Structures are given as C-alpha cells and as structure tokens.
Amino acid sequence: MRDQPIWKARTEPTTTPHQPAELTLDQCIKCNICVTACPVTAVTDLFPGPKYEAPQGGRFRQETQPSTDHSIDYCSGCRVCNMVCPTGVRIAEINARVRAHMVKTGQIKGRARLRNNLLARPETLGKLGQPLAPLTNLLLHNTLGRWFAHKLLGIAPHAALPHFASHKFSSWFRKHTPLSMVTRKVVYFHGCATEYYEPRVGKAAVHVLEANGFEVLVPPQNCCGLPLLSNGEFQAAHTYHEKNIHHLVKYIRQGYVIVGTSTSCTLTLKEEAPELLDNFSPEARLLAENTYDLSEFLLLLWETGDLNTENLRPLPLTLPYHPPCQYRAHRLGIPSLELLQLIPELQIQLSQAACCGVAGTYGYKQEKYEIAMRVGEPLFQFVRHSRAPLVLCDSETCRWQITRATGLPAIHPIELLAAAYGFPAEEPLRTVLATYANNQVAVELH
Amino acid sequence: MRTYQTEVLVIGGGATGTGVAYDLAQRGFKTILVEKRDLTHGTTGRYHGLLHSGGRYVVKDPKAATECIEENRILRRIMPHCLEDTGGFFVTTPWDDPDFGDRFMEACQATGVPCEEISVAQMLREEPLLNPKISRCFRVPDAAADSFLATQCVAEAARQYGAEVLIYHEVIRVIREGDRVIGVVCHDLVKDEEVSILADMVVNASGAWAGKIAHMVGLEVSVMPGKGVMVAANHRVVNTVVNRCKMPSDGDIIVPVHTVAVIGTTDQRVADPEHFAIERWEIDLMLEEGDKLVPGFRQMRMLRAWAGVRPLYQETKVADTRDVTRAYTLLDHETRDGVMGFITITGGKWTTFRQMAQVTADRVCEKLGVERPCRTHEEPLPALFESDRHTANGYHYLGARLTDIESHKSYGDLVCECELATRAVVEQAIRDGNAHTLDDIRRDVRLGMGPCQGGFCTYRVTGLLHLWRQTPVTESNVALRDFLQERWKGLKPVLWGAQLKQERLDEFIYLSVLNADHLPGEKASRLGPVMYEEEVNNE
Ligand SMILES: Cc1cc2nc3c(=O)[nH]c(=O)nc-3n(C[C@H](O)[C@H](O)[C@H](O)COP(=O)(O)OP(=O)(O)OC[C@H]3O[C@@H](n4cnc5c(N)ncnc54)[C@H](O)[C@@H]3O)c2cc1C
What we know:
The complex is a heterodimer of chains A (446) and B (539). Chain A has 446 residues and is of the alpha/beta class. Among the domains of chain A are: 21-104, Fumarate Reductase Iron-sulfur Protein, Chain B, domain 2 (Orthogonal Bundle), CATH 1.10.1060.10; 318-445, 3-Layer(aba) Sandwich (Rossmann fold). Chain A has 22 helices and eight strands. Chain A has helices at 33-37, 50-56, 80-84, 91-104, 110-119, 122-129, 133-141, 143-153, 169-175, 191-197, 199-211, 226-230, 234-253, 263-277, 282-289, 294-303, 325-328, 335-340, 366-386, 396-406, 413-420, 429-445; strands at residues 184-189, 214-217, 258-260, 291-293, 318-322, 347-350, 391-393, 410-411. Chain A has a four-stranded parallel beta sheet with strand order 2-1-3-4, sandwiched between helices. Chain A has a four-stranded parallel beta sheet with strand order 6-5-7-8. With 539 residues, chain B is of the alpha+beta class. Among the domains of chain B are: 82-143 and 226-310, D-Amino Acid Oxidase, Chain A, domain 2, CATH 3.30.9; 409-518, no CATH class. Helix content of chain B is 33%, strand content 22%. In chain B, strands 5, 6, 7, 13, 14, 15, 16, 17 and 18 form a nine-stranded mixed beta sheet that branches. In chain B, strands 1, 2, 9, 10, 11, 12, 19 and 20 form an eight-stranded mixed beta sheet that branches. Chain B has a three-stranded antiparallel beta sheet with strand order 3-8-4. In chain B, strand 15 and strand 16 form a beta hairpin. In chain B, helix 1 (15-26) packs across helix 9 and helix 11 packs across helix 13 (458-469). In chain B, 55% of the residues are buried. Chains A and B meet through helix 2 of A and helix 10 and helix 15 of B.
C-alpha cells in the first residue's frame, strides 16, 4: 500500500537489481501460447513468431558475432507475446535489442535505415513541419508527395501519416489561463503527437486535471525515444532519454509526478527505455517510478476518492473503445475503460482485437504496410460494425491507423472525459456531440 | 551365421576406435569397425566437449599437456567445422591459491602451451558474467568440440576409404585359435542375430569396456571406470571455456558447447562402465562450483545432467582415480601376454584420439609386417551437413544454424525448434545416415537436445521415421517411447524450477494427450537407453 497520495512523487528510487531481458529466455517452456497470440505471425509467413525469435533464436546469438537475423525485423513490437507468456519471458524486449544489434552491425542500412530514422524522429519532423503546416500537410498528403516518399524512402503510399496541427500544444498552453482553485501540482508529458499533431488531446488533459484541482506544469521535454527504440536506433534514443531525465527529475525531486496521455510515451519512460538501454541509474529509476499514464493516474485518484465525479454530465452515446497494445503492456487492466464508465449513460463497446497493426512506425513501412493492415483487420471489422460516429483509443498512431482503415474519426478517451466535465470539445468530437444534441432536441420536440 | 572376413577389425565406435578404423583404411587396410550401439554411445558421446589446449595438465602431467597442444593444432586444421574457436581462460578465483598462477605460466612455457595473462577488466569485457572477484586470468587456445559430429565425420572418411562401419553390433565372444585371436562373434541388435567376423588383427578400442573385451580373450586388463558428472545450463552463460587456475579437481571447468554451457565434472570410481547412478551431491557440487565462476549460476535453468566414464588403465590398483596419468595406453598382447592378433588401445582424451589412432595403426602395420605412413594429420575431414558450411574462419560458430535458417527462410520447417533442426536435415539423417533409433538422429542433428528435451520434436520425428522407414506402427511407438525414456534419463537429476515446469508440460503432451505409455507395441526395445541406476540411499 502506498502511504502517501498518488500525486506525491516517491523521491527515493528503488535499488532492486535488474535482470537483462535476455536472461529471461531461460523461462521459456516452449508452450507456443505466444505464437498463437502473436497478431503478426497470424497473417504472414515472413515472421516465424515470438518463440522462434526470442527464446529460441536467443540461444544462438552472441554479441561478438555478426548478426545473422533477418526475420526478427518483422516483429512489430506490440508486446502481445509478453502479456500472454505464462512464464515471464521478455520477448518483445529481446527482439528490440536484437534489432538494435542489427542496426549497430550494419544489417539495416541504406535507404531503409534512412527511412526508419526519419519515421523515428517525430520531434524533428514536428519542429520542421508544423510551422509550415498547410504547406507541409499538402506535400505529405497529396499523391505526388506520397509517390516520392514511397519511391525514394519506402514509405507505404497509403499509410496513415498524421496531419500537422495549425498550432503547437505548448503555444496554446503558454497562453492558457489556469483555473484558480489549485491545491496540488502535476507535470504533464505531452509527447510529440500532442505537441505537433493533436494539441486537442493535451488541452483536454489540462482541463480534466485542472477540474480536479491540479496545477499543470509543462516543462521543456523531448521525444520519449520510443520510435527510435523500436527502430533499433538505441544511441539516439539514449540521448533523448537522458534529456528527459534531465528535464523531469528535478520536478520529481520537488515531489511532483509525471502524467502523460500517450500510452507509448509513458510506457517508454516507465520501463522500455531503462530496460532496452540498460539505464538503471537512480535518476532513470526516479523517472520510471514516478510516471503515470493519465487514465491510470485518474483512476488511482478515483480509488482514493480524490477524483471529482460530481460534475460529470451524462453522455448518452454508444462508442467503441480499443485499448491499444501499448497500453495493455502497462499491465494495468483497462484503466481508460473504468474511467469512461464513470461518465453517466455512456455505453462502451470494448474491442477484443489484439492490435491495430501499425505498431508505431511499423505500418508506415512499405514492406510491412500490408501486414499491418491485415493485423488490424479484426479491429477494423469491429469498428465498422459498431456503426458509431467515432472510436476511442489512447494511442495516437493507432487512432490514425483506425481512421485510415475505417474512415471513422478517432479520439483519446480523455477528450470524452473533458467533454463530460463540460469543456468545449474540438473536432471531430464537437460534430458528434452537436449531432447528438440536435437529435436530442428533435426527439424532445416530437 | 553371417560371416565377414577382413584384415583388421576394430572394436568400439568411440573417438578412438573410429579414428583407428579411419587411419587403417586410409593406409589401405581392409577394415571393419563394430560398435555395440551407435557411434559415440560410450564416453565419447558423454564427455565435456573440450578441445584441450593442454593448460589443464601443464602442472600435473606435462607429457599429457604437450600431447594435447600438438593435437589441438592438428585438429584445428583437419576438422575445424567440428570445433568452435572459443578460446579458454584459466582464472584465479578467491577460492584458489593465488600463487598457482605463476607456476601455471611457467609450466605452460615448459610444455609449449601458448598462454597470455590478460587483465581482469579485459576478461570481464569478454565474459561479463564471470565473477568480478577473480584476481588473475590467463588466455589459452582451448576450444569447444562436437564429438558427435567429429566421430561421424571420421567414420564417413573411413567409409570413403572403404572401411565398413557396423553399428548395433555387440561383440559377445572373441574367437581364439591357440595363441592367436582370429575374430569375434557379434550380436546384431537390430536383426537380433549373430554375426561372425574373422580378421588378421583385432584392435580393442572399447574405452572403459576394454577390460571386458580383454576378459573375453582370457586376458587380465584393468581399466578402472571413473565416472564424471556434467550439468548443462540452458544457454551459453559464457562464450569462452573457463577453467579454474588450480590443480585439476571437481567442477572446475565450464565449456560453452553449441547452445549450452556445461559444468563438470566429478570423478568417482564405479564398478561398471554402464550401470551407475548420478548422485544428488554431484549435481549440488557442480552448481556450487559453477557459482564460484559465474555468480548466480546456481539459480539458472539447468537442462540436463549426464555422466561418462573415464577409461583409466592401471596395472596396479590405486584408490584415487584422479592420480592416474591421462596419457593413453597401448597394450601389445603379444609381448605382454603372448597372445597374437590382438592389441588394446585405451585411456587418453578425446583431444588426443587422432594420435592414439596413429600409434595404434603404426603398431598394426608393424604386426602385419608392412610399412605405410600415417596421413590423418594432413587430410581435412569431410563436412556432412549443409549447415556445417556456415563457418567463422572455417570453425563452427554458435550462430551457424540460425544463419542457415534465416538465409533459407526455413523457419517454417523446424522439427526440433530448440536446436533449430529442420525437416531437411532430420530426413537426411534418417535416409543417408545409419539411424536406427530417434536417439541416433539426435546425435546426428542435435534433435531434442534443447530446453524442452524432446517435448515438441519427438512426435514429429517419429512421424518422419515412420514415413521414411515404413516401420510398423508398433515399432514407431516403441521408438517414440525409447526416446522419451532416454531424454527422461538426463532430466531426472535436474527436476526443479523451469525445467520441472517444462517436464510437466512434456508429461501432459505425451502421457495425458498422446497416451504414449499405452500405445500398442513393446514397452521398450533392445535399442533403448540404459538408465542411470537409482541413487543408493546411504542414510
Ligand atoms: C566426464 C568426462 C569428461 C571428459 N571430458 C573431456 C574433454 O572435455 N576433452 C577431452 O579431450 N576428453 C575428455 N574426456 C575423455 C574422453 O571423453 C575419452 O577419453 C574419450 O572419449 C574416449 O574415447 P574412446 O573411443 O576411447 O572410448 P568410448 O567413447 O567409450 O568408446 C568405446 C566404445 O566401445 C563400445 N563398446 C563397448 N563394449 C563393446 C562391445 N562388446 N562390442 C562393441 N562395442 C563395444 C562402447 O559402446 C563405446 O562406444 C572426458 C571423459 C569423461 C569421463
């Protein structure tokens, strides 16, 4: 049991020794559960499966020998295998580290490496692309631009690239006037997607936190490094991780915790970066141990009676929700679902699909695009059959992928929660709520 | 009775006997090799896997050390694909005499074993899991050796020179005419019939069984079986052979062989080379000693344990088998006992098998009155499997199979998933090889030697055997049971933790789902394993 409120940071890092992921391969009993659950193996022969790659292949790898792996690059990193493994083999992490070895030893090179590096740097792309948003969006989303991206870089022509936002989240935040009723503080990690593509998610997060009496701090921060990690670019990822530690640990030392709306960013800070990069410094531990996904955080508040639920308005909608694999990898159950269930009259249809397929940058790559679409098919079916006006999902790339595949807009659950608190919604939620309100009026008039 | 006539008959399909048969065939002798089970059934298939640099013997037995380094160089030249060039360390742990290092260095120089002291920091860079409290580290040219493959290659080379290799032929009688041995009678275990083989010369290369064979001739040859227990960890804990820098004793070497790291050994006198137990204290001791070299070793997953018997020849009986010299023994029974047509070669090490074969063949030449020079040190041995062609500077390397599978995208075709044995190599072993049992296939392609110990490949390979050999269903069932039993043999001593979980799963698969115990057919066959005896309870 924790002896202090959830929003108070633990300023003493743990010291438990950590075991490198590779050593967990000893736990494998070959049961094949991971193979049957792996969404990638199910749709392609190019990926022999988690068991073959990690615990089996792992016994044949030696740091000093040339990397002999090819098929492991088809692991999407969704971590479904980790979750289903009954004995605790850290399959996805082993795979990620092998990919890094492939990069280090020149197995992934040339155009593919250039492309991977571009896709893996949302922060750089955002810094360059967002200020010229109308133009860059035009370039990125017209047929000619995509043709070039395809031919020159191997970016799949139909992949779900996002649109740059007209303004950055941090610009909005600087001008934003907080509510005055603050009693406690929290640091918000917005991530690249919120900053450059979907500032509305960050606004909703700030609103909900403020509605719960938090002053929200948004210190300088960098990309969490996950896209680099999943492309095997560990050196660059390490630099980002160190920078974030530098930016954030001083707040933790003052007693504030970090919350984020991007499930993959929070997972990275919590465990992926330390684990993959072998970074278990006291500072890295402090950051890992004081980072929360926002839904996780709010649900913990609710559990101790610290969440404001009185002002939640009813939203009599029925919406599909897909807990992204990146979120399930937090091993927290489905906190967003529990949170959404606090909104009166809201009905949630829960997706049982394993993965949307995109897995960060995986589905953008020409050679993997088809696989990603096939992986996502059960989810797309589920979404299409829901006949709902929009779909909920915590992860940005999943949202873009779902929208790309089904045509249905997708939002972060926090946006719905903010609306329930009465904050004005942005598109696409605004139209949905307006349509719903009109229908209500129409019903009442009858 | 089926009868063969040959110039030389060699008894024993271990490294030594196979080497002798090859050498003789290469020198132009008509040669037959008989082995009572499969090749390497004896100590050769149950050893530690180390191509000695000689380092282990420099202080205690300089003669053996020099022999080792000479042969080490030759084997690296003629069979690199059966070796992995791991290199070796001799390390001084806090439990070892710190002054031994200097003696060791000097002795290396005296015996010609190349040795270089490296810093502990460098050692830890190369082998990060080694004990950081190690105070000194010496590098020597040890290597890991695959004795199954090596023996197969030597046998293949012998066949190419016209030798005949008869496996599952157990010598049950020696035919003697006055003062001369003129042949043997074998039991063909597969056909269950007797076969006689007449020869001008019989070479007894039956290792720890040498005394038993000599006894059939009516001779007294004392070979003390010294049992040594080894335990394999589930993965390559180290990639370098690691020896303790001290006088040779129990549990002081870890050898990385293929996908596992093997700690060994003990040394216990046993009454019989085939019937003995692996005792609990032996396993405990291995783990305890392993933990000194690699802290945390004890907690790691252990795959399996096995034991081999050292063929230690002794004219007079000595209590502690460790003090017997490792240098081999060649007995000319004509001069020793006045019996012609019969010589015995025993003792030695795997590392020196070629040299032992050479001196034995030299003696055969002498006896038969011909002069034909040895060429085994010059001629490279053939590679048997496609995947053996992936090498690092000619040597086998850990990633070879993975490279092969990845480059052919043959991952969909694995029969043994743990050891990455594909359907193609298993079928090759069934068709081209002489495999009679699933265990024979195992020795050829490492089938069932990984973490699940046959859990997922036994039923697959049974199907393939059935398909290619058209064996009756009852025989296929027995083959499956024999193999499960054989795997179980080495699992019993290490049933805890992850390996226990594994075995429970295997048990569910075979006993609960497939009902393997009650399938039609014999319970076990003549070709089935000899189990370790139950441990004697001394309390
Ligand atoms: C525990 C242990 C670890 C070792 N580790 C190493 C090491 O790391 N490096 C190294 O260089 N050396 C090592 N050695 C030594 C080495 O393994 C042996 O010296 C070598 O394998 C002996 O080979 P061999 O052919 O003489 O005997 P074996 O391999 O025992 O061959 C004798 C064969 O004769 C057959 N046979 C017996 N009776 C009959 C019969 N009646 N009819 C037909 N055939 C019969 C047997 O089935 C057997 O296959 C180790 C020994 C032990 C015991």
